[in-house]
Structures are given as structure tokens and as C-alpha cells.
Design a protein that fits this description.
103 residues, globular, RHH_sf, Ribbon-helix-helix domain-containing protein, RHH_dom
Length: 103
């Protein structure tokens, strides 16, 4: 099992920095490439570009929390929550299919 994780392509965890405007201010966000890929998927599901999704998310965090401490870590957590939700959604679909087959 560790081979699956240890043999991961180094390019997937190489850093990539992107410039984004958050609330009218230009900033840079540095994430591993694999997280940018997940954010692209999440943004597409929301019908947004990655910059628009991140900007909207940042605004919502500010509205809820009043600040966005360690926003880059928040983005990584968004990716994990999204992937975890996909796993649960897949499990629910399997449970539904299994129930239908059993009936």
C-alpha cells in the first residue's frame, strides 16, 4: 500500500504559484500542482474559473470569519473536503445501486 503513495510522481507535489485578485488586490497563491488540479475540478463543478472560485471563497470566508488566516491551508482543506464528499457520494450511489439490486 505504501508503494501507491511513495511512488507518486514528483511533479504532482511540485509547487506552482499563481497570481490571483482577491477583493481587488493582486496576490500570489502557492500550492502543490495536485491541489490546483482539484481546485480546477471544484471550480468547474461550481460553474466558475479557478480565480473566480477562489475569490468568491475568500469573500465568503471574510463574511463568515472576518479574516482569512492561512488561506492557502484553507484551500488545501477545501480540496480534501471536496474529495471526501466525492467518496461519500460514490458510496451513497453504491448503496443505492446495491439496494436496488437486492430488491
Amino acid at each position: 500500500m505504501c508503494h501507491i503513495f511513495a511512488s507518486q510522481c514528483p511533479a504532482s507535489y511540485a509547487f506552482e504559484t499563481r497570481s490571483i485578485r482577491l477583493n481587488g488586490q493582486s496576490t500570489s497563491i502557492r500550492l502543490e500542482k495536485i491541489f490546483w488540479g482539484v481546485l480546477e475540478t471544484v471550480a468547474a463543478r461550481q460553474g466558475m474559473s479557478v480565480p473566480k472560485f477562489i475569490s468568491t471563497l475568500h469573500s465568503e470566508v471574510l463574511a463568515i470569519r472576518g479574516e482569512a488566516p492561512n488561506f492557502t491551508s484553507h484551500l488545501r482543506c477545501v480540496c480534501l473536503v471536496s474529495l471526501e464528499g466525492s467518496l461519500y457520494a460514490g458510496a451513497a450511489a453504491c448503496d443505492t445501486d446495491g439496494a436496488a439490486e437486492a430488491a
